[in-house]
Amino acid sequence: MSDTRNTHAELVQRVAALEAERALTLRLAQTDSLTGLVNRGAFTAALCDRLEAARAGGGAVALFVVDLDRFKHLNDTLGHHAGDLLLAELGQRLRGDCSETEIAARLGGDEFAIISDVADVARRAQRLVNLVSQPQVIYGRQVSPGASVGVAVYPHDAADASDLQRFADMALYRVKTKGGRRFSIFDAELRAESERRRTLEEELRRAIPAGEIEPWFQPVIDSGTGAVVGVEVLARWNHPDQGLLAPAAFVPMAEELGLIRAIDEAVFDAACRRAAAWVAEGLIELVSCNVSPRDLLDPGFSRKLIGRLDRTDLPATALTVEITETFLLQDLGLARRHIERLAARGVRVALDDFGTGYSNLRALMHLPIQTVKLDRSLIADVGRDARVSKLVASMLHAARALGVSIVAEGVEDEAQALFLRSTGCDRMQGYFFARPMCGDAMDAQLREAAAQAEPARAARRAAR
Ligand code: C2E
Ligand code: CA
Ligand code: CA
């Protein structure tokens, strides 16, 4: 009898211990270890629960997303440990500031969120901005990162958790682009933007397989002879209602949605097919294609590109792939592998938008990059601003020393063209010579130029 009781008591104890352990594991799994706040996973679950309850009981739920304005700077200057201390302190402050019914979470990095039932969201948001902006002392130094807050409310703004988060993020993004240190509440302006984006997103998904995204071409001019020696391929969306759309209207969104590769591939295939004839007939020598930094992060990018190229009639030696420095900085090892693989097949690589970022001619010495494209922003002031002219002249000089050829982009007037020619820039591109045009217009222009040049060519042949 006593044996049975013992066993029973033991069992109860074991079950209690197991339950305590399970609760602890569960709490740890839901807690952000640095700040002690609820973590992202638990936050999403809690938000869904709150919305469920509000749906049943007819209440409202406000979501505040908080993002530090200068965290990266602080992290970089004071070090990661100091950054961690700052986040931990903020976590404590946020927890201390929340009421019984509010939940504070760390979503990751320097991003926090509060789920709340307050009615006066503007006042609550301002209190959060103030709370996070209060200076902290870290390693004896006073730091104040400043914060931006975005707010959206269920059911007023959004009907579910994912929209509520998206809308609060949109409000946050808007205030950040305006300099931060304030809060912003989702409103009609953001709703209109969100609807525009959603429509555009659906249309873009449809447009790619429908072949609405097509290559346009901008001539590249030889500075010495003034002749068209190549073309840069630029994507255009032939939108059924909105007409022709430039990349600014859809490339950033396509990158966000993971659609950019499909676009780049479609544009590349169509452009190569079209331009192969121009190259074969000797109308141009070079075809330059843009690729997104996102494409380049795919380790298979260069192999796939070569495969696609092989299925067209364009010779590899006529192709230039334009990449930006952003990518070189992101992953130099991968960049080198792609560039070397392309170079081995005779495909050239050009560094685009040179002169805008951390432009570093030295990096070029260690990579088989044959061309740099001087950014439009530099060209705009060339021949007008003596300092810019000098800078461009010295870049041209350095590039020559490295055996790299230079293409100037965005040449809009004669003064710029003359200056660039006199300083030895190899090739030029810009509205002064020609705007981007559709394949048919490019074809017509190339043939007309060839016809005009024919008598001169014939004369040269006869003279030999
Ligand atoms: P980018 O590669 O720097 O292309 C040059 C841009 O400058 C083009 O704008 C061109 O139309 C414009 N441009 C050329 N000459 C002049 C000029 O004299 N003055 C002015 N103000 N602008 C000039 P676009 O076509 O709107 O393309 C913008 C950007 O979109 C491109 O910049 C490139 O980064 C990207 N892009 C274009 N096509 C593709 C594509 O097929 N794939 C990817 N991933 N990106 C693309
Ligand atoms: Ca380009
Ligand atoms: Ca460029």
Short description:
The chain is of the alpha/beta class and 464 residues long. The chain has helices at 2-30, 40-57, 71-78, 80-97, 121-133, 161-177, 188-207, 251-257, 260-280, 293-296, 301-310, 325-330, 332-344, 361-365, 376-380, 386-402, 414-422, 439-463; strands at residues 61-68, 103-108, 111-116, 136-138, 141-143, 147-154, 183-185, 213-222, 228-239, 243-245, 286-290, 319-324, 348-354, 371-374, 405-408, 427-428, 437-438. 53% of the residues lie in helices and 20% in strands.
Plain-language structure description:
By secondary structure, the chain is of the alpha/beta class. It has 2 domains: 27-190, Reverse transcriptase/Diguanylate cyclase domain (Alpha-Beta Plaits, 2-Layer Sandwich), CATH 3.30.70.270; 200-463, Alpha-Beta Barrel (TIM Barrel), CATH 3.20.20. It has helices at residues 2-30, 40-57, 71-78, 80-97, 121-133, 161-177, 188-207, 251-257, 260-280, 293-296, 301-310, 325-330, 332-344, 361-365, 376-380, 386-402, 414-422, 439-463; strands spanning 61-68, 103-108, 111-116, 136-138, 141-143, 147-154, 183-185, 213-222, 228-239, 243-245, 286-290, 319-324, 348-354, 371-374, 405-408, 427-428, 437-438. The strands form 3 sheets. Strands 8-9-11-12-13-14-15-16 form an 8-stranded mixed β-barrel, surrounded by 4 helices. Strands 2-3-1-6-7 form a 5-stranded mixed sheet, sandwiched between helices. It is elongated, with a radius of gyration of 30 Å. The chain starts with a helix and ends with a helix. The structure holds ligand C2E and calcium ion (CA) (2 copies). One calcium ion binds at residues 352-353, 373, 375, 409.
